[in-house]
Amino acid sequence: MSDSLYEKLGGEAAVNAAVNIFYRKVLQDETINHFFETTDMQKQMAKQKSFLTMAFGGPNSYTGEDMRKGHAHLVEKGLNDNHFNAVAEHLQSTLEELGVAAELVAEVMAIAESTRNDVLGK
Amino acid sequence: MATLNYKQQDYICQKNETVLDTLLRENLNIAHGCRQGVCQSCIMRSVDTNPPVAAQQGLRENQKQQKHFLSCLCLLEQDMQLEQITESEFAHNLKVLSKQMLNHDTLLLRLLHDEAFTFKSGQFINLKSADNTVRSYSISNPPNKQLHIELQIRLLANGRFGSWVHNEVEIGDNIPASSALGSCFYNTERQEQGLLLVGTGSGLAPLYGILQDALQQEHKGAIHLFHGSRQAKDLYLKEQIQQLVSEHENFSYTACISGEYRNEHEEHYSQGRVHEVALSNYSYLNNWRVYLCGHPEMVKQMQTQVFLKGVDMNDIYVDAFHLSSL
């Protein structure tokens, strides 16, 4: 993976920086933050980190099955495309704030988009 | 419904009943504490099938491989034969040196530990009473040559462990104890960082330990301690902490009262809930390190708030005190 997207973006340090900014945006968004009310924040951050690592095309242990199972209880509570879009927008603006080049942002967003059906249980 | 086999006896787990609840319902003597998967005192081992993954959260990899699991989190999906892990979880005997009341309901228990016991102040230990009640307590003093540790034990009405310590334990008795656990303690990385310490009730115990450790290690950044309780009589160690304030320019202390408060003794308290008082002092907290101890609801709310004010999640240390069943 010598020139993977993950490496180009700066590897683990970049993920760490991104996850703090990204999760702050998510928690402040009233349209989606109720999905996180009962979660353990530190565990959730670890998950966000694995998710971003995956979205960056880096080493990860996420499978489609995990995404499906991990979000099933949220789908029951009404998780839908609008919520998915909101989270995706926060991811995009996080990357833009960090000065990631536009074509790399597009690559990350394409990977994130590829999880939509699993996340929403479709 | 699954059947568990323990000491050559079969027991049926009812629907949505954990292994721990099944065993306790059958009046078996199983060590346990928080029932939240935190204190790990109810750890057991499966002899045959693999335990559910959800019952192994927080365990180390080698424990998982040995089929250890937390019985308070374990809902059986299939039959299992299980056993208790031998008493090595309580590898230390701590000798009681003194008992002293710090206020109307908080007891300072001073214990002598052996050379093999190592700790950082702010970590917690599990103690086991004569009737196998297990409780977790934070260590509120730094390591010292005398091999003393200090615990602040809140005496709740009908609290089993506290009553036992208060009424039955005598000077010179030994109390079985685990190794020191947890990651809520001071470290000397980035000593210029500001430290924000916020606690309710006996959440002061780990914070007082962390505070003394940071001061001894000559922490460079500001150290702000906020301690809150409902009434003035619930606060304690005020004089000792004020003394530290007078000795260290970078340290400040704010005592908060959330309940009704009349300024009868001309002592100064801030009115309000401790985390709200603390937060009102800062418009942002970038680069701060934060320790939150005590009431779970306070800890969770404050964790979110300081994170949103710019603290890196890795710089937030939490120790939520869940009330055990009495």
Quick overview of this protein structure:
The complex is a heterodimer of chains A (122) and B (326). Chain A is mainly α.
Describe what you observe in this structure:
The complex is a heterodimer of chains A (about 120) and B (about 325). With about 120 residues, chain A is mainly alpha-helical. Chain A has helices spanning about 5-10, 10-30, 40-55, 65-75, 80-95, 100-115, 115-120. Chain A has a single domain, classed as Globins (Globin-like), CATH 1.10.490.10. In chain A, helix 2 (about 10-30) crosses helix 5 (about 80-95) and helix 5 packs antiparallel against helix 6. Chain A starts with a helix and ends with a helix. The mean pLDDT of chain A is about 85. Chain B has a 6-stranded parallel sheet, sandwiched between helices. In chain B, strands 2-1-5-3-4 form a 5-stranded mixed sheet. In chain B, strands 10-7-6-11 form a 4-stranded antiparallel sheet, with no helix packed on it. Chain B folds into 3 domains: about 5-85, Beta-grasp domain (Ubiquitin-like (UB roll)); about 90-175, Translation factors (Elongation Factor Tu (Ef-tu), domain 3, Beta Barrel), CATH 2.40.30.10; about 195-320, Rossmann fold. Chain B has 7 helices and 17 strands. Chain B is an alpha/beta fold. Chain B is about 20% helix and about 30% strand. The interface of A and B includes residues 19, 23 and 27 of A.
